[in-house]
Specification:
Mean pLDDT: 79
Helix content: 10-25%
Strand order of the largest sheet: 4-5-6
Distance between the termini: 56 Å
Strand content: 15-25%
Low-confidence stretches: 2-24, 131-140
Radius of gyration: 17 Å
Largest sheet: 3 strands, antiparallel
Order of helices and strands: HHEEEHEEEE
Number of helices: 3
Length: about 140
C-alpha cells in the first residue's frame, strides 16, 4: 500500500512549483552588483542587440545565459528574452544577462571589461550594449 500525502504537503509542493519560483530566479542587486540567486556576478555583452542575445554556441559555453523559468515575466527593469534555441533568458533594461564560467565563487568579477565587450551590471548603471547595431563577432 502506498502512503498518502498529507494535504499540507500537497499545498507546499504546489507553492514551490508555481509563481514564487519565478521571483526566486529574478536577479537582484547585492553589494552594488547584479547577481543571481547563488550570488554569482552577472554581465552584459556589448554585441547583443536590445532584447536579443547574440552569444550562442562557444560564446554561451564561456558566458552561460541566465535562464528564466517558464512562467517568469517582466518586472520593473527585468524582462525575459527568447534565445535563438528557444530558451528563455533574463535581461536587465533590455540587455540579456550572463554569468562568466571563470567566476568560481560569489563576488568574483573576473569577466568585467573582458575584451572590452563584457561588463558587470552595477547599481544605478545602465548596460553599455550596442542597442540597434549589428553584432560583429563574439569577443569571448
Amino acid at each position: 500500500m502506498k502512503p498518502k500525502l498529507a494535504f499540507s504537503a500537497i499545498v507546499l509542493a504546489l507553492a514551490v512549483t508555481s509563481g514564487p519560483a519565478a521571483a526566486e530566479s529574478l536577479p537582484k542587486f547585492a553589494g552594488g552588483l547584479l547577481v543571481d540567486a547563488q550570488g554569482m556576478t552577472l554581465y552584459t555583452f556589448d554585441k547583443d542587440v536590445h532584447g536579443r542575445s547574440n552569444c550562442n554556441g562557444g560564446c554561451a559555453a564561456a558566458w552561460p545565459p541566465v535562464a528564466a523559468v517558464e512562467d517568469a515575466g517582466a518586472t520593473g527593469d527585468f524582462t525575459v528574452v527568447t534565445r535563438d534555441d528557444g530558451a528563455r533568458q533574463w535581461a536587465y533594461k533590455g540587455s540579456p544577462l550572463y554569468r562568466f564560467a571563470a567566476d568560481a565563487k560569489a563576488g568574483d568579477v573576473n569577466g568585467d571589461n573582458k575584451n572590452d565587450v563584457w561588463h558587470v551590471v552595477r547599481t544605478g548603471r545602465a548596460p553599455q550594449g550596442n542597442a540597434g547595431r549589428s553584432p560583429m563577432g563574439y569577443g569571448y
